[in-house]
Amino acid sequence: MQLCVLHPGSRDPQQLFPDFAGQPDVQKQSPLGYQGFAACTGGGFYRKDSAIPADERRVLFVLNHNLKACRQIMINLRRAGKTIILAWEKPGTFQLESLIRSPSDLNLFRDICGRAHGALAVTADLEPVFRGSGVLHVETIPMPIPVESSEWDLSVRPEERVGIFLGTSDRGEPSRRHLTALLGLREVVSQMYEPLTVFNLDGWRGRRWLRQLGYPSGLLRVIERRLPHAEYLRKMAAHKMVFQLDASGGPGHVAGDALMCRIPCVGGDGVTERIIFPELCGYGTSASDLLYTASRLLDHGHERELAVVRGVDLARQRLSFEVIQQSLEQLFHCFG
Q: How many CB atoms neighbour CB 334 within 10 A?
């Protein structure tokens, strides 16, 4: 089965994945997130329904905020005889509330759901949303990680790893708890004398924020631009761990990135964090406990390595391309 993932309005380019995960390339989009669903089946990622080949019948339709346009696309797909499974563009726990703002939005969403064959929930919280909106067949399938591919093992030698990589960068989204993480890590960084790497994408305003944190000289390393994902992973891999306090309840991209770098991810309550780093994730754990865990792991390299070994094993069982590809085939098989 080659799946067509349709994400209208996406900033990511159209892309085919004939070699499945392929290898890291700064010129191409990584086979992760919704692209990962296409990649694990050797399919394609599309921005326009008109670009989907006529002979391709199975479509994962990723809804965005423009529900009126999405409804028309749904009508076009049904007329073309496609089998359509719905998904949400931003599947975090709190993001749905910001996408459906009015009764008319809800009406459009329910209309779209009534026309779909089924739905794919990448987080368990979305399953009752789709069911309550009229989708009769809903399955929860997490986003895949190419953990079985040696090309996506981006690890470096342990002696080359230094410091902590902060997994969030959005200070404007309260659920990320970015500022809380920055303030909490200051004591850890100072005591352990391990630098913290952060992103500043807010220019001079962001630099002013960072200066006010009071980090010791040389222990706050700042990246001032967005990086292609492959380059971003190379930067991450040079650290001893990733830390975050994200409480958005999303898919958990940060933990997946950390696993490909073969370093542990401390904190975060997303799906991937809960699956591959259950003893380190932030689900039901206080910020103080997570900061203590980070301090302990900085001091005990063998614990970091053990967490990664366990994480890779869990990912192979539940999040690998092979496992998710089988789940997708079973889902679409329900509709012929």
A: 12
